[in-house]
Design goal:
Chain lengths: 48, 500
């Protein structure tokens, strides 16, 4: 069995999980700032 | 024989220090900044040593953990890598020195984490350049991007939202790249760039390879913000803190351009990318529109930073045009422009940082009389503006010259025209700013008595730690311009991929 694809998949999964973590952190930041996660509402708030 | 340790030092020193810096932050906060500068100085010095070694002794190989190349990860440094390495490490060192005051002003309580992310970002960028393994490149790409998302989100009001937007695009780009790596692995069973370039020519007719190539080009085009895929860039770079923009704006797009050159012309053969499928032609037409739209959109901006961001999109277009032309002159121009543009953009965004640091608004029509307050900064601005426009002693002229020569060699007169038109548009853009800053009389000078103290300078410059990197970058623009003949014959001629 070739172990390399497994290692690649694991690494890719780890990278994606950390991306997901950063994404959630960003969403939290957005929510704290605007009290909403609706894109339309955020854009409306930003325009003011 | 003992292998040269520099290729690994370049990566490991900033990587380890980025984690140590958090520990250091617990003990003594004010040691973090010198520590970061020292770490980046080590990688800058090692990259200079590498450039020296590569030029005199040929390509360097470093096998991680002593695994032999097709299986283990290999770091390969040829003159092209070494050249981009020097640019990335030296510019990030200068920006790091300048970042201290901006960080203290904009977000003092986050300084330690900023330094950590800054080092991670630089590690990622250097890693992309140094590696000879396509999957390892993906990992470094994600290190750089993740650090970038976090850094951008620190900024002003719209920043987290813009950063999230960037993250969606960036992740799509990275997934495309990963898919292409997967496809290449299916058909060849190898991830090593040198190995791939040996194995691929027999498989060029395979659909899987074509798909891999397509995914690859689109993925990297998203990362380097090539025109129709640039949508994430303007917001992200405008709202990012000025210290962050001056790091990511000059370097991320340039490293993307390097990856483009590396894969199109080293992993795949130039014949494949130019003749077998019209990828290079398509790329140069996309670049044509990138240059045009970048300049035109920049004309509509009132905010200096936003204007520069659109100029950056046009500059990415120049590099892509050179890559797409795919002849000797065009590619020389593209590689030279990687360096020139990194210098110009770093200098310009640092100046924006200095102007905001001094409490000036970024709106261009508010710059009246700025040269009396900040003469040195504005002088640097004029030099880099002249370079973007492409006026001889500054370096921007020489890369444009080679790009125009490349377009003439390819007999693409429209590309020649667009290069010249973009110079004109850039002249309009920058003289608009220069005129406001230097020649327009202030609002109160109109009403007051005939001005007596017209030549009086009210010294209100940015702090020295920002002024010195700015001046160094401006001096770099001039001296690279004057030395560009030597740089081309000593470095870039060696850096051109084989078969050129």
């Amino acid at each position: 069995m070739n172990p390399l694809p497994h290692v690649l998949m694991l690494t890719a999964i780890v990278v994606m999980v950390s991306t997901f973590g950063v994404a959630l952190a960003l969403l939290l930041m957005i929510y704290r700032r605007y009290q909403t996660l609706e894109e339309d509402e955020i854009l409306a708030l930003r325009r003011k | 024989m003992m292998a040269s340790p520099f290729p690994i030092l370049i990566i490991v020193v900033p990587l380890i220090s980025s984690f140590l810096i958090i520990l250091l932050g617990w003990l003594k906060k004010n040691l973090c900044y010198p520590f970061m500068v020292a770490a980046l100085a080590v990688s800058a010095l090692s990259s200079l040593a590498i450039l020296q070694e590569v030029i005199h002794h040929g390509i360097l190989h470093y096998h991680l953990g002593n695994w032999d190349p097709p299986w283990g990860i290999e770091y390969v440094i040829d003159p092209l890598n070494a050249f981009v390495l020097v640019i990335v490490s030296v510019i990030s060192l200068l920006i790091a020195i300048a970042s201290k005051k901006m960080v203290e002003r904009e977000f003092p309580h986050k300084a330690v984490f900023f330094y950590c992310l800054f080092l991670l970002q630089v590690t990622g960028l250097l890693g992309i350049v140094v590696t000879g393994d396509v999957f390892n490149l993906y990992v470094f790409l994600e290190i750089a991007s993740l650090a970038g998302y976090a850094l951008i989100a620190i900024g002003e009001d719209g920043a987290p939202f813009a950063s999230f937007n960037y993250m969606i695009y960036g992740t799509i780009g990275a997934c495309f790249y990963l898919l292409s790596v997967g496809y290449l692995y299916i058909v060849t069973g190898s991830l090593n760039m040198a190995d791939l370039s040996r194995l691929l020519p027999d498989l060029y007719s395979s659909r899987v390879v074509l798909m891999a190539f397509a995914f690859f080009v689109v993925g990297v085009a998203i990362k380097m913000a090539l025109f129709p895929l640039h949508v994430w860039l303007p917001d992200a770079y405008t709202y990012a803190p000025s210290s962050v923009t001056s790091l990511v704006a000059p370097l991320t797009t340039k490293v993307g351009a390097y990856v483009m050159i590396r894969i199109m012309y080293t992993v795949f053969e130039p014949n494949f990318s130019k003749v077998a499928i019209p990828a290079a032609t398509i790329l140069s037409w996309v670049a044509f529109f990138a240059i045009l739209f970048g300049c035109i959109l920049a004309l509509g901006q009132k905010d200096l930073k936003r204007m520069l961001v659109y100029v950056l999109i046009a500059e990415v277009g120049y590099i892509a045009l050179g890559v797409g032309l795919g002849n000797r002159n065009g590619l020389t121009g593209a590689i030279l422009h990687i360096m020139n543009d990194a210098l110009m953009m770093a200098c310009l965004f640092l100046i924006v940082g200095a102007i905001t640091y001094k409490g000036w608004p970024r709106r261009i029509d508010r710059f009246i009389g700025l040269h009396k307050k900040m003469p040195v900064t504005m002088a640097a601005f004029v030099i880099s503006a002249l370079s973007v426009i492409g006026i001889p002693p500054a370096c921007g002229f020489f890369s444009k010259w080679y790009l125009v020569l490349g377009a003439i060699d390819a007999k693409q007169w429209l590309f020649v025209a667009v290069l010249l038109i973009s110079s004109l548009l850039n002249a309009i853009l920058f003289f608009r700013v220069i005129e406001r800053a230097y020649f327009e009389p202030g609002a109160n000078e109109h009403n007051a008595q005939p001005v007596k103290n017209k030549t009086k300078f009210i010294w209100d410059e940015a702090p020295l730690s920002m002024l010195i990197p700015t001046v160094l970058l401006a001096a770099g623009i001039l001296s690279v311009g004057l030395l560009s003949g030597t740089i081309i014959s000593e470095v870039i001629q060696l850096a051109l991929p084989a078969n050129f």
